[in-house]
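Pasting as-is:
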Amino acid sequence: MEVIHTDKAPTPLAAYSQAIKIGNILYVSGQVAIDPETNKVVGNTIAEQTERVIKNILEIVKAAGGALENIVKVNVYLAKPEFYQEFNKVYSRYFDKWRPARTTVAVQLPREDLLIEMDAVAVIK
């Protein structure tokens, strides 16, 4: 088991790791729209926050030796169901040819300024 950490994604503020790699499987913890340089939430729209969240996930996957195409499963947690269409537009720009399995649900997130959280699983050779 290996703990994955990069300064290019937000440092966890609670009792969890950015990701854990077991063998060739990488489990990326839930990421929100926090800029790792400022530790502040980025964006007031679902599009802006989705962009930041995906960038955070990709930086963690890269730190483990992977790339976008290694992501096989994504869980998406939206603060409101009406965010789905705009979220999906941004998500589809990243995952246009390679489309991992995905679950998307509307939930109450722990802070009002957070509109989205995503976690991911990747297979890294």
